[in-house]
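Can't paste images in this forum, so I'm doing it all in text. The chain is below; anyone willing to post the predicted structure tokens underneath?
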Amino acid sequence: MFKKLGFAFVLMILTACNQILPSTTHQTTTPQGFGFRYNPFDVSDYEENDEYYSSSAFKVAMLLPLSGKASTYGKGMQNAAMMALEDTNNKNLEVRFYDTKSSQEGAQNALSTALAGKAQLVLGPLMADEVSAISYQARNKNVPIISFSTAPHVLGNGVYTLGLLANEQIKRILGYASSQNRRSVAVVVPDSPAGLNMAKSAVYAAADSGMTVTKIGFYEPTTLEFSNLVQQMSASKDFDTVLIAETGSRLKAIAGTFGYYDVAYPETLFVGTSVWENTNLNKETTLYKGIYPVISRVHNDYFEKKYKDLFGETPNTLYSYAYDSIALASALSRQGGRNLYASIENPDGYIGINGSFRLFEDGTNEHNLDIVEVNSSGLKTVSSSPKSFGAKPYFNQSTITSRPQIYGKDQETVYEKLFQSIQTPSYFNIF
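Text version of the structure:
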């Protein structure tokens, strides 16, 4: 059972943007109950006529890997969802948790049981193969899926994601670099489908920002040896920015190798994506003054503190998406007779723990992102997220005026992938 924190939270809807983040108002709380119906639910225990659930409430099924290979993430996301249920305190929202068992078959069984319980909205699953396994069945029943997978092939036709996508991160970070008078970019990515997608995003995002990608280097995804690649790319320094879409030891090794070949700030600005967040960079002098985009930090202190107080550990970034999915479901439950898909795709978006976000018909999304800078003393926010959304972002192929040099991979193969007609946005295919 949750510990009570001394503040209860109420849901507020704003005119310009649907705020699903709870705002604090002091109230007296009691030790029993949290104002929501919570049932930790296993698919094998389903009873169709469960008296605990109201026939008029908005019924939501949350599919998570509560057992199996991804259970650590699943249980953390369930914890965050329970926090959101407490905070929203919406008595018209009924949420049941279903275990996908980290498998396609488990996800299918979970969805079948959820649909038998008349679920109107599905939150999850986490992994791409689980989403693929349930998509047809959910579409057949006209039930939207708001998943946590960012794999491009699972999205669209009623399947959305709340996950942070690579193309919007790269567009944001290169847009900021351009505002700092940076004009040319060298890109370093793994030789993988995800790496190609990120390279493609960089080429078009740079062009949209008045920059040019001059070089793209590809490396074996498991390697820690970058000397040959970096030496070749650094032979002629026709770039003032280096984009490294990596984390951990590979991020450090790539940056350190560039430093060895005299590529450093202020002549060169190192930029990255949100995966930099998973690496302690305080002692990485090559990356000092480097920047990367993050989910808005305005409300993260609240989420992280409460999660740690309740569950005794620092939450993974994934868990915050589970929180926002419940808060979004609560907002959707208040839309009355409106078309559910139209409500999900509200162009004004929503505000949650992760700041402002909105979902598009093709299943993709957009977040308003902060830019943080790496320093010896920690991270510093150098550009706060925009306060509102503009037109839906897109890449204009006609803005490409030159083609980058390619290293570590056949040039024509890369050009074929980069400059073909754009079919889908680019993503980090993490799950």
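Residues 136 and 388 are 34 Å apart (CA to CA). The chain is about 30% helix and 20% strand.
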